[in-house]
Amino acid sequence: MLMHQGMGLEAYNASPTRRAVHAVYECCYSVVLATDLAGGRPFADHDSLFRQADALLFSLGEDSIDRVLQAYLRIGRRPRSPKSVCEQCAVWDDDPAVMTELNSEAGHYAEHFGFGFVMFVEDGAAPAATSGACCADRTLARIVDRLHNDQETERKVVRNELARINRARLERMLGPEGGYYNW
């Protein structure tokens, strides 16, 4: 759970450095990215913060990306979680055979590439996603498709997926313009 959910850009800009770093770390699992983003404050608007977060993510070395990937939960670890709705850990299907196949293919993926599978689940917020089957089928198809990538291509895909997940998490951290009343 994000402690800093809905804090607003103004509160983020005004936060003590430690708190600002912690808020972003909850979103991206990178101390370097969180520290550098906090050091770039103040941000004029959400988009400038998002662009800087993307630039920082894409500037990280592969070792840093590998450490980030270790923090991500496997498929189905948070079934239908509203807080993880756009991530692979919230993907679920009530059919045990589907979940077994998903986890088997995710295992093949990890063996092939040396890191766990991550993806931004585009239809995670859609009403059909609550049933899980739509997301599970699409996730399975994405794993199988991405297994055809070479290492270099997949590392690029992974960074793009992480950027999309980070954006969703940062949006949740900031909340609406001006934040919520409790900040």
From TrEMBL:
Q: Which Pfam families match?
A: OHCU_decarbox (PF09349)
Domain Oxo-4-hydroxy-4-carboxy-5-ureidoimidazoline decarboxylase positions: 13-171
Out of the domains of life, which is the source? Bacteria
InterPro entries tied to this protein: OHCU_decarboxylase, OHCU_decarboxylase_sf
Q: Could you list this entry's UniProt keywords, alphabetically sorted.
A: Purine metabolism
This chain's protein is named Oxo-4-hydroxy-4-carboxy-5-ureidoimidazoline decarboxylase domain-containing protein
